[in-house]
Structure of Electron transfer flavoprotein subunit alpha/FixB family protein:
Amino acid sequence: MSAELTKYKGVWVFIEQMEGKGAPVSWELLGEGRKLADKLDTYLAGILLGDNVDNLAQEAFAYGADKVFLVASPVLKHYRTQPYAEAIVNLSKKHMPEVILMGATTMGRDLSGTVATKLGTGLTADCTQLDVEEESRYLLQSRPAFGGNIMATIICRHRRPQMATVRPRIMDMPQYEEGRQGELIREDLSLAEEDVAVKVVDYIKEKGKAVYLDKAEIIVAGGRGLGSKENFRLIEQLAEVLGGTVGASRAAVEAGWISADYQVGQTGTTVRPKVYFAIGISGAIQHLVGMQTSDVIVAVNKDPDASIFKVATFGIQGDMFQVLPAMIEQFKKQ
Ligand code: FAD
């Protein structure tokens, strides 16, 4: 490693917040960042941007951060790419972190690309696994590639910081250590509202029933095996009696049986419920990467060789049109 690169120290996690509430993926990344920082024998820091968000620094310490870099300004009250990226680029040039992690959320995806470009470094999006090679200090950034057919491990050889985004619910939530202390570093970057090209006029909350697949504890997901929109009702019925949320494979979404908001997988949502029912889903790799870390997986499929059985905790080989009504009946009684 060149002498220039050895100057970079510390694992940083962007603390995503909206209206003063931290996104769970930020805490998950602090948990993961802790492991990486320990292996690299360096510190773990949170980057906190916003207005009146000091309370989140305490949460970051409780989730394992050694330091928090806080930039407080009315300009940062609502997320906008330009001032947020500017703040992180400034902090990064001053303190030279070795690694920066962000959630692969709408905000994190937007911000990470801009920050990486401005810093002239690499970025691996949507990682599903992170590790470090201790000797070379490379961040090993693994993610599905070539349509999910292989897992690629990517390194950023010549530039720092090494940047990656990780989807929500991929990493474990760390322990919350009430009262754990850290170093709060306030940075005044003198951001001016007139320098920001985009003005926020109003925030309008989306109407209608939001789909919170990534937070669901029970998901009943249906696939192409259902055969029709009418049959897909069986999935909704089972979800209803279990108090769960409906999910779907891409095939079911493309068939028009359910909206894309419900899609689980590589191009849908990554989920990690306590129980995941996969009904009439074959278990293509692009589906598996979005649900295989669920605590318990129950698969119903008539094909004994279906790949879904390889990740299932309980596999029911049979015709779903017999199995599903029996399940609904039984769960109703309980
Ligand atoms: P199929 O593979 O057709 O499986 C249907 C299953 O139903 C079969 O196993 C069959 O045995 C079973 N079945 C049929 N009848 C019955 C019955 N009566 N009783 C019991 N079982 C029955 N897919 C996703 O899901 N999510 C993604 O995010 C995603 N992203 C993708 C991204 C890319 C770049 C690409 C190339 C593909 C992506 N896909 C995604 C598509 C993926 O490759 C598969 O095509 C898709 O997951 C298949 O959906 P399925 O399992 O419902 O359908």
User: Anything to note?
Assistant: The longest helix spans residues 24-40. The longest strand covers residues 138-145.
